[in-house]
Structure formats: structure tokens, C-alpha cells
Amino acid sequence: MPGDTPALSPATVVVHAGRPPHEADQPLNAPIQMASTYVAGGALEYGRYANPTWSAFEEALGALEGGRALAFSSGLAAVSTVLDLVGQDGVVVAPRHAYLGSIGQLGELEARGRLKAVLVDIADTDAVIAELDDAALLWIESPTNPALEVADVQRLVEAGHEAGASVVVDNTFATPLMQKPLELGADIVLHSVTKFLAGHSDVVMGALVVQDQQLYDVLKGRRDLVGAIPGTLESWLALRGLRTLHLRVERSQANAAELARRLSEHGAFAEVRYPGFGAVIAVVLPTAEAADVLTHSTSLWVHATSLGSVESTFERRRRWKGEATTIPEGLVRMSVGIEDVEDLWADLEQALERT
């Protein structure tokens, strides 16, 4: 990045990283390079190994997280690539509440006899540490999806390494604007780029970020081998979305904090969960039926399963049969967007009257 310096704030890095050089007639934005084949003899060689449009996105995300990024075709492709590093019969300690796809992959691999999954309350630091003795991998998600539990990331990273385990942190909810796991000692940072990083409900992508060169080479080699690569257009859209990450997060987080306060005072809920940062709230209604009424009675809030975008979305999580039974039937995960907070609140209020 031209004029790169460690003193730059994330808000500046997210705008400037991954751009072409400041030279005459260079475009300001990295172009979309639609190519599967390159003339031999250079660094690219073939479209499954590299693409300049991916590289621009990877440069920007790597600069934000403080490492080197690899883009993947989806968040679950990135999850699968990390789990492929675990040897036969290896133990993976992971949150009992986490991204459903991560838990699903762990369950499927355990059922096949590939590894052993130990699911823990990631917010109970002592309980997590007690399970680390034979662990090959410690999987941290903070805040968790959808329970919004917050882990002591630094302490758990230290404990994981003391036990000889590698540590991956899913940083999707916090984003690198609020949490930088590599600076806390984590080996790998994982993102569902689909969510906050791209931020416009038009991209499915994932990413891993590391600092260790050898680990980077192993992960890239695995991506090359299985072909879990992002599309060029998706990479370009994700980079364009990333440019406004700081503005979107600032607005959605402010909205979420205000809505969490009002929801806590409303009286309709058994529980309101908000970790104090980020743009995701979880509310627990007394019954599944009440939660379903809420999620089907709004005009602005969209009943949808994804999150982290400019529009506000919500859903009752136990409508998915794979969701943990420790998640209340009436829990609604709310992803707060960048709309006017008064409009969002009015829409919720009229829906709550129906519950």
C-alpha cells in the first residue's frame, strides 16, 4: 500500500489497502481480472492458484488483521481447510454454541471417526482449559453465534499453546475493527466474508489470516489442491464492501446498542443478550410461537438467516434442526443494520404488540 505505515488507523487501512500503485493512468480500484489461464513462466500460472483480484482483497484483509490472508469460496470452505489440518483421531475443543456450519462439520467428521470433538462453554475459561490436555486444535468463536457469549481470547490462546494445541479464532462477529486475534497470539483467524466484511448480502466467501509463513504455505497448498477458491466477481464485490466496513460497523453498532437498551426495558422478553459491542443482539421470547410471530410481523426487519449486512435481519434460530438444544426455542438472533434506529424500533414495537 502506498505510504504504508503501522501508525495508520484501521479506518484508513480499510480504505487504502489493496489498491493499485499511485502511478499515472493506474485505476484507483483493483480491476476484475477474469482469467483461468495465464502465460507460463510467471507467478500466477493457473486460475486455481492465484488471481490479482483475490490478491487485492487478501492484501486489504491481511493489513486489517495484521497477517497474510487467503480468500476461500465460502466460510465453510475455510472451516473445512482448517479442520483438514487435524490429524487422525485428533481432539478439537470447540464452543457448544458456534456457527452452525462449523459445529456441523465437527459432528460429521466425528461420526466418520476422523476426529473427536469436545464441545465446551467458551465463556467458562477454566472449563475450557480443563479440556485442553490432549487437544490438537482449540476453536474459539467470540462472540458466539447465536448465544453471544464472549471468550477470554488471550487467556485461552495462551492455555491452548501451553497444552500444545493450535488455536483458530472465528472473528466474524467482532471483525478486525474490534478484535485482532493474531495480536493476542492466535495461529489462525477465520472469517465468513459473506457477513460484515462484504456487508451487502451479495457475496458468499470466506477467509483465513495467519502470520506464520509455513502455515500460510500449508493452507494455500490445501486451497490449491481442493480448489476452494473464490470467484473473481465475488472477490471484487467483497473488496468494495470492505471499503466501508468502519462506517457500517460504527452505525450498526450504535443502532444495536440503542435497540438493546430499549428491548431490555420493554418487558416482552425473558432475556436480552448483547455483549456490549458489535451489531448482533439475541432476544429470548417466552415461546417459539411468540418468536415466530415477531419474525413474521415486520416490514423493515427481514426474516432471513444471514447477518452482518446493511439491512436488519432476524430469525428464530431453533427453526434449524441442527441448532444446539441449549439454545432456547424462543431465541431470536437480530442482526442490526444501518437504517434509522427510530424506524427499526417502530417496526419492532408494532410487531411486539402482536406477540
UniProtKB/TrEMBL annotation:
Signal peptide: none
Keywords: Pyridoxal phosphate, Transferase
GO terms (BP aspect): cysteine biosynthetic process via cystathionine; transsulfuration
Residue(s) carrying N6-(pyridoxal phosphate)lysine: K195
Cofactor(s) named in the record: pyridoxal 5'-phosphate
EC code(s) of this entry: 4.4.1.2
Family: Belongs to the trans-sulfuration enzymes family.
The protein's name in its UniProt record: homocysteine desulfhydrase
Species name: Nocardioides islandensis
Lineage of the species this protein comes from: Bacteria, Bacillati, Actinomycetota, Actinomycetes, Propionibacteriales
